[in-house]
Amino acid sequence: MSASRHVVFSLLFAVLAASALFGACGPTTPPCARIKCDRPKQCNPTSGVCELPAGYDGGAGGGTAADAGLACEPGCTGATPVCDTATGRCVQCLTAAQCACPTPLCSANVCQPDAEDAGVIVPSDTCATAPTALACGPKTFDVSVNLFSTNTNVQTACAAPDAGGGDVVFNVLLGVASDVRVTVSPGPGGAQPVAALRTQCSTDVDLACVDSGGLVASFRARRLQPGPYSFVLQGYDRSGSGPTLAKVEVLPPTGSTNETCLQAQQLALDGGSVRVDLIDADDDVQLSCNPTPRSPDLFYRFTLPQASDVIINAMGSGPQLPVMALWTGRACRLPPVQPACSTSTSPTGRLIARRLNAGDYTLVVETPGPVTLGRMELSATAGPASVPPSNDTCALPRDLVFPAGLNETSASVDTSLGTDASAATCGGAGSPDQVFRLSVTTTGSYTFTATPEAGSGGAPVLSLRKATCDAMTVEQCAAAPALDQAATFTATLAPDTYYLWLDSTQPATAGRVTLTVRR
């Protein structure tokens, strides 16, 4: 065999060996490498045939029918807006953050409604680590904690200032407008916990708070808007920090937003009318001029830029009797400084506060006892601070003098301008008053009458004293039998100096009066 023929056979054997190793057409290519399937079909990697994928549901799993709910293409929209990258499917949610009320929970990639009873919540010792629960409607949270071993992180409005009361915090995210009622009490072993509600944990501004006093106490914050709220449980002081039980109830919205002192509504002093509806209000405070229990109340506040007189009128539309009290400041700590408190025996009430200093004031409006019709109209005005009349005290009584040839003398008086310097056996305690002096030279019969301005709601009181202005013995005393009626009496007077005090049955019935003396 020639050398050339030997080379040819060698090359042929090499080609045959390569074919046996790699196949007749070269290296093997994956069956689907050059195959493009129309969606929703996919290439079978074994057969290289375009087929519908296993579990294909016609697009019901998410996205559109065009992408079979797979691979999140061309994009997740509509009812399934979230791409689950683990499965490549469009879903409704991956976490609760992608859900909202009324279906705030995420379960099996579907937003689900929340249970009504939330059970127990475990609070935290700091604002930064406070847990947050969600409420889309009626819901109840129970808390049991021992405050003795906790630190002091915040200062609530109802705890003793800087007294070291331990505290814990938890948050509730309201998905809809709601009322929130918080009840707090000491647990086994005794304590004096307080509960507070605020919009931000770290800011010491409470919307509402209550001191248990070592018993059971509660507050209801009404018509809270959707959003996050922080709840603080705190010992009144270090010794009051101990086992504490609390219940937070999220309820349907009712009533007015100014249910508590800390939620007091701004009151304009321009004489405009404000609707007050006590029908759903709770009894939050005890006023000095209204001892009746279960008296619903609402709160208002205003600021005086300078010393002023303030007059507040309340006009009811039913059997309710307005009660109004004015507190200084906005701290809402009890007992407050109370420059004025007024009750009424008719659906029309009035509170007059003279010579108030510049600053902040809180107004409490309530009615004695539970009400079935609690609506009234409230208006307030402010003016320059008045000057007390010269006959406000015994230092300078105003003389009553009969004009020559006449047996009658009269004087126009505004009793509300005075201060409370005296009270008689028939009334006048706590009401502003003025004093007059009458010199009698001959024995005779004298008739004293105080007539309130028509329609003013006045109810004057007259009392007569002899010899000294502040004599303890009252010769005569008469009070108006009803609003807008006169007080009058007749007495036989011997020669002497007499002092006539003009007062009113209560501060709300003070005002313009015509005083007349006849002999």
Question: Can you offer a commentary on this structure?
Answer:
Helices cover 4% and strands 39% of the residues. The strands form 9 sheets. Strands 7-9-16-11-14 form a 5-stranded mixed sheet, with no helix packed on it. A 5-stranded mixed sheet has the order 8-10-15-12-13, with no helix packed on it. The N and C termini lie far apart (172 Å).
Mean pLDDT: 84
Largest sheet strand order? 7-9-16-11-14
The biggest beta sheet reads: 5 strands, mixed
What structural category arises from helix and sheet content?
mainly beta
For the terminal residues, how far apart are their CA atoms? 172 Å
Question: How many H/I helical runs?
Answer: 1
Low-confidence stretches: 1-9, 11-26, 57-69
Strand content: 35-45%
What percentage of residues falls in helices of 4 or more residues? under 10%
E-strand count: 34
Tell the overall outline.
elongated
Cα-based radius of gyration, to the nearest Å = 41 Å
Structure, briefly:
This protein is mainly β and 519 residues long.
Topology:
Blueprint: H1 3-22, E1 42-43, E2 50-51, E3 82-84, E4 89-91, E5 105-107, E6 110-112, E7 117-120, E8 132-135, E9 139-146, E10 167-174, E11 178-186, E12 193-198, E13 208-211, E14 217-224, E15 227-235, E16 243-251, E17 265-266, E18 274-277, E19 297-304, E20 308-316, E21 323-328, E22 340-342, E23 348-356, E24 359-366, E25 375-384, E26 398-399, E27 408-414, E28 434-440, E29 444-452, E30 460-466, E31 474-479, E32 487-493, E33 496-504, E34 512-518
Parallel strand pairs: 7-9, 8-10, 17-19, 26-28
Antiparallel strand pairs: 1-2, 3-4, 5-6, 9-16, 10-15, 11-14, 11-16, 12-13, 12-15, 18-25, 19-24, 20-23, 20-25, 21-22, 21-24, 27-34, 28-33, 29-32, 29-34, 30-31, 30-33
